[in-house]
Amino acid sequence: MTKRYELSELIRNDNFIDGQWVAAAKGNRFDVTNPATGEVIAQVADSDAADAHAATDAAARAFPTWRDTLPKDRAAVLHRWHALIVENADGLGRLISLEQGKPFSEGRGEVMYGASYVAWFADEATRIYGDIIPQQQRGKRMSAVKEPVGVVAAITPWNFPLAMIARKIAPALAAGCTVVGKPAEDTPLTAFALVMLAHEAGVPAGVLNLISASRENAVPAVADWLADSRVRKITFTGSTRVGKYLARESAGTLKKLSLELGGNAPFIVFDDADLDAAVTGLLAAKFRNGGQTCVSPNRVYVQSGVYERFADMLATRVAALKVAPATDPAAQIGPMINAPAIDKIARHVDDAASRGARVLTGGKRLPELGPNYYAPTVLADATPEMQLSCDETFGPIVPLFHFDDEAEAILAANDTLSGLASYFYSQDMRRIDRVTRQLEAGIVGINEGALASEAAPFGGVKESGYGREGSKYGLDDYLSIKYLCQGGLE
């Protein structure tokens, strides 16, 4: 029997270590604010290296028992956790809206999306197979088995405060690993609520530990995990800059790494595309969470023959989007996460306009709604010299670039250090095959703007990182392969 909690009951402001809610070792706290209003929602534990170390101590103690727990029993715990998440989808969705700003419909959608990973990996826990290697020498038997890597440190971003941590914790627990985690300082409350439900579902003490830390204390807290040889894997979603730091600083203990880093996604519209479908797909891909997603199209390339028509269609649809606080049931786009995010968006738009871009709609802040709102914007005549062509905007801005032929579009799309997602629209089957093979990205949307699924491998190439989350491949990142050779059989 699952329990439904009130929103106030879901809000926790202490660390969760070894099955207990505990204050930070030094007693410090920091504010979590509502980006729509700037009001303080809660004051949470401001942890440092001592708290991170205590979490690792608990996870290391719990690992042998959790590793040896039968897969079907680990799966049962995950299934109970999934049921609790679904039962509390409304409360969790409201909590996401409160601390992250996205409309409630998107917040609740994120809850169900995150829950899908828990259910998926609950089933995958019972499907961790090894191999019998064909005999090479008489009297010898060789096999390969998969084992959990050990203690996993999960570090997650603010834009999807439930889904990102769920799709890291769920495979780790399914594989038999124990977890220490730190959510983003902007959105720790949703992560704490998720851990509370995991504890309610029967995750044993020490198996799952979570600490929060301010921006100032996050580095020493994470640095403790990077230096601790008991932490065998780091899984991180966030910026490429931080991902490179983690890779460098963890090299001393040769940890396994999964890094899902920044994107600079191209979206290509060929002149044979279904333009209505392309506009709808672009809206879905770009404006989810107000453009604050790593797979949001950052550069939209439109073939010259359909450029003006597509631009007009898109601008009309974008101008009709409803910008409002998450408390407004009609809201389609909420506030951006904080003032630096708004400043970056404005800087990119101003730079583009100064270099000749035409503002077809938007292009301004919306102070009448609050400090962190920006109008959904379409910019025509974008060029590679503009900041937004090479720096991920992370906001509701759509720059439109011209191109003449397929080769030019492919060259422009791949002209980036990132390689997370790419999209294109075409009805020519031969072109679809050619373009799919040539795009340098870990994820490709073909006549489709909504790509994420728990059954699919999510991750990038180039400086967008390595490793995959979701799907059967997502479990492998939490496992190591042990080769067994038994002799003297004859």
UniProtKB/TrEMBL annotation:
Keywords assigned: Oxidoreductase
Entry EC number(s): 1.2.1.16
Keyword Metal-binding recorded: no
Top EC group: oxidoreductase
Catalytic residues (positions): 260
Pfam families (UniProt xref): Aldedh
Domain Aldehyde dehydrogenase, first and last residues per copy: 21-483
An example molecular function term from Gene Ontology annotations: succinate-semialdehyde dehydrogenase (NAD+) activity
A biological process term (GO) from this entry: gamma-aminobutyric acid catabolic process
Record family assignment: Belongs to the aldehyde dehydrogenase family.
Protein name per Swiss-Prot or TrEMBL: Succinate-semialdehyde dehydrogenase I, NADP-dependent
